[in-house]
Amino acid sequence: MVHVFIPTSEVQRTHTIHKSAEEVLDITREIVGYVRDHSDLCMFSAMDATRTDWDYLVKVFQVAAEAGATVINVPDTVGVITPSAMKVLVRRIATEVACPIDVHCHNDFGLAVGNTIAAVESGASQVQVTVNGLGERAGNADLAQTVMVLEAIYGIGTGIKLEKLVETSRLVSRYGGFGVPPTQPVVGENAFSHESGIHSHGVIACSATFEPGIMTPEMVGHRRRLTLGKHVGRHAVRQMLSDAHMHPTDHQLDEIVERVKFISGKGKRVTDGDLYEIASSVTGSVNGEKLIVLDDLAIMTGNHAIPTASIRAKVKGVEHVYSSVGSGPVDAALNAILGIVPARITLKEFNIEAISGGSDAIGHVTIAVEDEHGRIFDASASGDDIVIASAEAMINAINLLHHVKQ
Does 35 share its domain with 149? Predict the structure, then answer.
């Protein structure tokens, strides 16, 4: 398909292409006709359609359709139309122009997905979306959100492999360098996470109590997770400890919950590792044998050297030596650690923050790892050497996962 377009709003005609309304009609007829002389498929877009006089816009689309356009596109180029207005506009175009309708919505006011869905309700047969909503300025309609609204709420099949939505989002985020907000619908880290006491209690009993139900984490390749924070409740903490085979008394559980809330209230993230350390302290239990004990870590790096890490550690009491390279010293160190783990473990999250000032600042590293069953656990470590702190955080997370398995 060949896609051609021309500005149609007065502001864009005047200031970008310097053409009159009649000239735009002539150009539309010419470019669409030329494409159809050389191709079977032609999409025509009236750029800035939603700020174009509607009577004139319909006339432009009619000219494009008569010239042979196989699809006409309605772009909300600067994201200013509302869903209610989009429904009226698309319905009018569908009534007066004999051509399939496509829409392209921008997110300047956060209405891209809403406008896209409104267009479908009024007769649009195809829509343009982007992974993670990436696009000019504030972006475009998000792929995952649009697809799941259509599939789960409207029951409209899209042909998209829903279970790949989260994986695709993370892939694009990784290679594009744009992080996905934790609260991003469908694919964000918190999309199916629950902290509030009443929410966690409900989800433990029946996931549909505080989730849509018609969209589950399994459908989109996500996972449900209970998280720790100042709003955490007893049921969530008890469930998380039970998963790790820790069974405090009611009195001990109350004290554990209070400590978690106290730490969270001071602005510190409480990891799974922190929870189990708190529980061990309160109950007087021992965390058990560690899977990995780090003996030595050596790093070689430089502006003309491939970052390389060599590790010596005991795994289940047996000494192992392993070396690995990476994109940087931290990456090399974590790769080396993963190289000696006798199970498939994937790094899912890496965060680092300075907790003091200066070049010798203390760095606090939080790492989340996932095992072959999709279970995710996080742990942390601090130190003035971020490579060592990162390695210790990774080992803490792996040891935590091992303890839960045991």
Answer: yes
Total structural domains in the chain?
3
- What integer pLDDT is reported at residue 286 of this predicted model? 61
Residue 26 shares a structural domain with residue 77: yes
| 312 lies in the same domain as 172 | no
Q: What is the pLDDT of residues 24-77, one digit of tens each?
A: 999 999 999 999 999 999 999 999 999 999 999 999 999 999 999 999 999 999
- Where the chain has pLDDT below 70, the residues are 285-288, 355-357, 406
Domain holding 166, by residue range, is: 2-176
Q: Tell whether 90 is covered by a domain.
A: yes
Query: 85-91, long-range: CB within 8 Å, 24+ apart, which pairs?
Result: 85/50, 86/50, 86/115, 86/118, 86/119, 86/122, 87/118, 87/119, 87/121, 87/122, 88/122, 89/50, 89/54, 89/122, 90/118, 90/119, 90/122, 90/123, 90/124, 91/122, 91/123
Beta bridge partners of 311: 297, 322
Q: What is the pLDDT of residues 365-403, one digit of tens each?
A: 999 898 888 788 888 888 888 999 999 999 989 988 887
Q: What is the 3-state secondary structure (H, E, C) of the chain?
A: CEEEEEECCHHHHHHHHCCCHHHHHHHHHHHHHHHHHHCCCEEEEEECHHHCCHHHHHHHHHHHHHHCCCEEEEEECCCCCCHHHHHHHHHHHHHHCCCCEEEEEECCCCCHHHHHHHHHHCCCCEEECEHHHCCCCCCECEHHHHHHHHHHHCCCCCCCCHHHHHHHHHHHHHHHCCCCCCCCCCCCCCCCEECEHHHHHHHHHCHHHCCCCCCCHHHHCCCCEECCCCCECHHHHHHHHHHCCCCCCHHHHHHHHHHHHHHHHCCCCCCHHHHHHHHHHHHCCCCCCCCEEEEEEEEEEECCEEEEEEEEEEECCEEEEEEEECCCHHHHHHHHHHHHCCCCCEEEEEEEEECCCCCCCCEEEEEEEECCCCCEEEEEEEECCHHHHHHHHHHHHHHHHHHHHC
pLDDT of residue 57: 98
Last residue of a domain, one of 220, 254, 283: 283
Among candidate residues 176, 201, 232, the one where a domain is terminated: 176
Which residues are CB-contacts of 243 (< 8 A; sequence separation ≥ 6)? 404
